[in-house]
Design brief:
Blueprint (H helix, E strand, L loop, with lengths): L2 H30 L3 H5 L9 H36 L15 H6 L7 H12 L1
């Protein structure tokens, strides 16, 4: 991989990292740090209806799943940035072949070439 490509992928990874970090920060401040009562908007001393609690709990669960997925992607991006520093970026961790630039354009944090990724996904479904 030439120097220009490395810089382009580094920029792409850093932009995605910034976007995810910002999104996680917003999610944390708006949802994850709030209590059930604050989330519902009911600050009175009266209890909240059970159906409302269930809906709020479901929404909170979805938010936690989004935060978890974004946290994993953030970790994958950090690992890709380390691979860039170690000159291992763009090399498939399974077969050792170069990952196609087209794949890296779409998934810049990819660790596997398309063939090995497909194989891993087939095995995980079995």
């Amino acid at each position: 991989m030439n120097k220009r490509d490395r810089k382009r992928f580094e920029k792409k990874l850093l932009e995605e990292r910034q976007r995810l970090a910002s999104s996680l920060g917003k999610l944390e401040s708006s949802v994850l740090k709030r209590t059930q009562r604050e989330s519902s908007g009911d600050l009175s001393a009266y209890s909240i209806h059970a159906a409302d609690l269930g809906t709020d709990a479901g929404e909170r669960e979805k938010d936690l799943q989004v935060a978890s997925a974004e946290g994993r992607r953030l970790q994958e991006i950090d690992e890709a940035l380390l691979r860039l520093d170690d000159d291992d970026f763009g090399i498939c961790e399974e077969c050792g072949q170069q990952i196609e630039h087209r794949r890296l354009e779409v998934v810049p944090h990819a660790r596997l070439c398309l063939k090995c990724q497909e194989k891993a996904e087939r095995l995980s479904r079995s």
